[in-house]
Amino acid sequence: MTLAEFQRSLTARTAPRDVAPALAALWWAKKGDWDKAHKIVMDADGRDAAWVHAYLHRVEGDAGNAAYWYRQASRPVASGTLDREWDAIAAALLRDDD
């Protein structure tokens, strides 16, 4: 799936079926369902889930918690816009999903 296809899937009512948990959480986050996205990453392991988890706490405004999850993901703390970070995470995870 390309980034453009993933973005177009946001018009659907549910996340695409064949995506990894981190991507599903990112999808729900973009749809505005922070709680659902957070539950998905809380139940998932790995750096990808930790990266999305960091993003979610950044959305929430909890910089300290976000910093912890960026460390778990081995990623630098993001400083750009949330939309730009969402796009960067989605693009990276979709490349890894190939």
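Above is the first protein from milestone M3; the second protein from the same milestone is given next.
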Amino acid sequence: MFKNKKAIGLEWYMLIVAIFMGVIWFYIAMQNAKTIPNYVGEHQFSILKTANSAENALFYIDQSAKYSLEQTIYNLVSNGGVFEIEANNDDKLVHPCGTYNGAYVWFQIAKDADKTLVTDCINEDVLEANLEYEFNTKLNEHILEYPSNILLDNYKYTINDGIEITGMAANPITFNIGNEKIKTTTITAKSSEVNPIISSDKDLVEFSKTVTAKTPQGDVDMSGICPRGVSCVLTKDAYDMLVKAQKRAKDHGTSLQITSAYRSIENQIAIWSGDTTSHYAQRYPDENERRKWVCYPYGSDVGQRCPHLTGNAVDIRLNGRAMTTSDWKLLEKIMLEAGWVRYANEPWHFECCNTQRYARAQELGVQVLV
């Protein structure tokens, strides 16, 4: 009888010790573990969440397209079917009939005896290309405001009945399933691996995912300077000057956003040939006229004539701004303070470092140059 009582007491003692050890082990495990990996249903929830994000993105694109078409029609009607760059051009060869009440004249009607003479003042063949160009520009502006990954200039358009646009995505919109964070690091690639136009002693910096740039004066916030769908690549010297410009923009209470930086020769040829949404070849069938708006990508001196090919030129704007006249003036002030040179005919185009225009501006002691 006493033997049984002792046995029971020993069992209880061992049980208490086991519970105590278990509590200690559980406490240590909870201290070291932040989350329980792969809980039941985790992947299913991730798939549902991603599917919902995709539906939201598609709905946003659809609504943005409707607003963009309305804005495009209004703008083109206001400008007489002319897109933004043409609207600021006074070349009578482009618009021989001038304007009437602020709109470009399409036809001139005159009577000669019993005959009525109608003169075409604008090439109607380019109106469709102008509509597509302006629409794509407006759609990009809406897409830039969306918080998720939607590519810019990603649609091939078909225009039906003059004002109905159907867009087919050239590349799919991708969404990551899971909680992995995108790394935000700056990487460099040898210029010889990218384009022989760039001098071999320079590196190209790809800064699409760079969040912070470190400088001797402190960190500079670079988030948002490279929007989705834009290839943000520059030479090391040009990138360093862009960081300076971003710092100056922050001092002025704003920030910068790249719309175009380094271009490969293949990309420049595509722009020239009308294979991009800008459709320069369609809008300017005459090559001499087209050269006023896009760089001719052929010839031995193409690297001098087309500064984007050197990695030392940027097309840029203020982030989140509609870009009014005062906005363009502020952008110019910021970029010139950082040492860039502006192309006089394009308020968004700036160059630095080893471009022909930059060297000529230094010789003349100016920062705005044709």
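Note on the second protein: The chain is about 40% helix and 20% strand.
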